[in-house]
UniProtKB/TrEMBL annotation:
The keyword Ribonucleoprotein does not apply. Pfam families: HAMP, MCPsignal. One of its GO terms (cellular component) is plasma membrane. It comes from the Bacteria. This is Chemotaxis protein. It comes from Paenibacillus oryzae. Residues 199-251 form the HAMP domain. Residues 341-368 form a coiled coil. Its main location: membrane.
């Protein structure tokens, strides 16, 4: 800025110098023109006088010649009246250049005088010649020369006038020095003004530059005060507003990054806990699946036993029929019948034990179903908590803005997965409720079968007693055999019902096994998703820590 203004000052000085040279030359030219006009006027007056007198200057041969005295007096008068330096007549007589008449106190007639080129030009051309300003030992002059003719019409010399022209170089010198002084003053004043203006401009610019360097270095506490009403003042105000806004932005980023860092750390730990819980649930579901498989195997075994018992009852019924047909031969075979009754009693005891085991298995199935219901309830609560956490994570991601968009997408997917888990848990809960209802029906059927078995045992005991007294009355044996056949028919129907119920229980158990496998797969998928969420939370925490570290490089007011 300073160098530019100094260059401008120098340019002004150069222009001023050029103007001074032009004015000086113009003024000198005007002065020379004025001198020339004066000289022409005076020389014409002198020529008119010389032409008017009868004497001819060519006739003068001494200072005592009348023409000399007369002409010199007139030339002295012309010199005095017009304030001239010299008025003279020069001649070339007898091939000698000499003075004929020269104004002044002394007489120089006959003195040698070498003609200048301007004098020679006037004599040769016969025209008036005006010399340029010249300087000799007597001063600075400007001269005019007009040729003179003798009585025969021949040019013998010239009439000349010298005028003092020292004023021209003096004026030039005065103009030069005045111009030089003015230029020096302009240069000094201009340089001072340029320095002051440059300082007034560069000082706030330098202050703004230092402030910008500090802001670039991270120091947002420094203020730059420029108390001006011009553009620089507005620039300073804009810089202050920018610094304050940047300081507020950095403070908000610092607070937000700290909040995001803490929240992401909490979410990371929560996701870890949920992942561990999901793994535990998956392990529990696998164990439950194995337990249900064992129950299904037990039910299958029970079903096979019941089928065998049913077959035995069928055979007993056939044998009773044969015994009824062979009532007349019972006496001879009573001992064999007694043994058969004992075997039947043993089978009934075995059937009762199997029924008790079936009842116990059904009871365990109901207990396991209740345990599964509790686990499903826990899964439902976990899904609800996951849904709530996903909602909170979506809210936090929305607060973060653009940087939390990816996290919001992950939170939305977690929310969808939680809703799917909740719906699956509800479906499983309904299935378990149906299973519990069927288990109750199985228990009732088993209880009825057990009651029927107990009734069969009573009848078999009676049969055993009848066999004990068979020897006493074969007549009543036929009637007892009818009753026994009716009881066996009822037992056969009961065991058929038990067999059908056990087959239904087996189907339900298989469905429960498939449901548990689906739940286990869903839990494993949820566990994998939670692991991905854990990694995302860890990345978010690291990004928040890096952002907080970057923000700490700025210094702001607390």
């Amino acid at each position: 800025m300073t160098s530019s203004m100094l260059a401008m000052v120098l340019l002004i000085c150069a222009v001023f110098a050029g103007v001074e040279v032009f004015i000086s030359q113009k003024l000198a030219k005007q002065l020379e023109d004025q001198f020339a006009i004066r000289l022409e006027t005076n020389i014409l007056e002198m020529k008119s006088y010389l032409d008017s007198i009868p004497e001819n200057a060519a006739e003068i041969n001494s200072i005592s010649h009348p023409a000399y005295i007369k002409i010199k007096e007139r030339l002295e008068q012309i010199k005095h009246d017009n304030v001239l330096e010299n008025v003279f007549i020069l001649g070339r007589l007898q091939d000698r250049e000499q003075i004929i008449v020269l104004t002044g106190d002394e007489d120089y007639y006959g003195s040698d005088f070498t003609f200048s080129p301007d004098i020679n030009q006037a004599m040769e051309s016969g025209q008036t010649t005006v010399s340029a300003i010249y300087e000799d030992g007597f001063g600075v002059h400007k001269s005019i020369f007009i040729p003179l003719l003798d009585s025969s019409g021949q040019t013998f010399g010239i009439a000349g006038i010298d005028i003092n022209a020292s004023v021209v170089p003096q004026v030039k010198a005065d103009i030069f020095w005045i111009t030089t002084i003015i230029m020096i003053a302009v240069a000094i004043v201009g340089s001072l003004v340029a320095y002051l203006i440059s300082r007034s401009i560069t000082k706030p610019v330098i202050a703004l530059m230092h402030g910008a360097e500090k802001v670039a270095a991270g120091d947002l506490t420094q203020r730059v005060e420029i108390k001006r009403n011009d553009e620089l003042g507005k620039l300073g105000e804009a810089f202050g507003v920018m610094r304050r806004n940047l300081e507020k932005l950095i403070a908000q980023i610092s607070q937000s990054s700290a909040t995001v860092s803490g929240t992401s750390e909490q979410l990371y730990h929560a996701a870890n806990d949920m992942s561990a819980s999901s793994q535990q649930v998956a392990t529990s579901m696998n164990s439950m699946n194995e337990g249900v498989a064992d129950v299904a195997a037990s039910i299958a075994d029970s079903t096979a036993s019941i089928v065998e018992v049913n077959a035995d009852l069928t055979r007993v019924t056939a044998e009773v029929k044969i015994m009824q047909e062979m009532a007349n031969a019972v006496a001879g075979q009573s001992e064999d019948g007694q043994q058969l009754v004992e075997k039947t009693l043993g089978q009934m005891n075995a059937i009762q034990q199997e029924m008790e085991q079936s009842q116990e298995a059904a009871t365990q199935l109901g207990s396991r179903s209740r345990e599964i219901g509790e686990i499903i309830h826990i899964i439902t609560e976990i899904a609800d908590q996951t849904n709530l956490l996903a909602l909170n994570a979506s809210i936090e991601a929305a607060r973060v803005g653009e940087q939390g968009r990816g996290f919001a997408v992950v939170a939305g997917e977690v929310k969808k997965l939680a809703e799917q888990s909740s719906h699956a848990a509800g479906s499983i809960s309904e299935l378990i409720s149906s299973t519990q209802h069927e288990s109750k029906r199985v228990l009732q059927s088993i209880a009825q079968g057990n009651q029927a078995v107990q009734t069969g045992q009573v009848w078999i005991h009676k049969m055993f007693d009848n066999f004990n007294v068979i020897f006493n009355g074969v007549s009543s044996f036929s009637s007892q055999m009818d009753d026994l056949k009716l009881a066996l028919d009822k037992a056969d129907s009961s065991f058929e019902m038990i067999s059908n119920a056990m087959q239904k229980i087996s189907g339900v158990t298989e469905e429960q096994t498939a449901g548990y496998e689906e739940v286990a797969a869903a839990v494993e998928e949820q566990s994998a998703t939670m692991q991905q969420m854990t990694a995302s939370f860890r990345n978010l925490s690291q990004m928040a820590a890096e952002l907080q570290q970057s923000v700490q490089s700025f210094t702001i007011r607390q």
